[in-house]
Write a structure and sequence with these properties.
Layout lengths: L2 E5 L5 H9 L6 E5 L17 E7 L7 H9 L6 E8 L7 H11 L3 E9 L3 H7 L9
Parallel strand pairs: 1-2, 1-3, 3-4, 4-5
Protein name: Flavodoxin domain-containing protein
């Protein structure tokens, strides 16, 4: 059994949440859905594998780019937990969208999590000093 983190995290918040969820897993392999040079159709899992699939929620929906990339992966009944990370408003339909795409890609969804993380984009606009971003 292999363990995977499948993450779309343009600002880093979703990645932090996912690493917290999997911090007691050893030998975790990462699939970065934000990479532009990765052939997602070449990625496949087995029924014995387990994964966490995480995406941010923007305006109550998952980023279409992340969903499209997830759809190209071959889940092969890999068990997974889906994680919607949101900040300043509700996550609304994000988990439903993620489940639909994960199931269509062949994953077996066994859990769902909604998690709150800071909105880095808004924070970057509101700080006086760039160093405050890293506190």
């Amino acid at each position: 059994m292999n363990k995977y983190r499948i993450v779309f995290s343009p600002t880093g918040g979703t990645e932090k949440v996912t690493k917290t969820i999997t911090k007691f897993w050893n030998e975790v392999k990462d699939v970065d859905l934000s990479k532009t040079d990765l052939d997602f159709s070449s990625i496949s899992f087995t029924k014995e594998d387990i994964a966490v699939i995480a995406m941010p929620s923007f305006g109550g929906v998952a980023p279409q780019l992340a969903l499209d990339r997830l759809a190209r992966i071959k889940g092969n009944q890999c068990k997974c937990a889906i994680v919607a990370v949101y900040g300043n408003r509700a996550y609304e339909n994000t988990l439903v969208q993620m489940e639909d795409y994960a199931v269509e890609a062949g994953f077996h969804v066994i859990a769902a999590v909604s998690a709150v993380a800071g909105i880095v984009i808004k924070k970057a606009c509101s700080v006086r000093n760039k160093c405050e971003l890293y506190i």
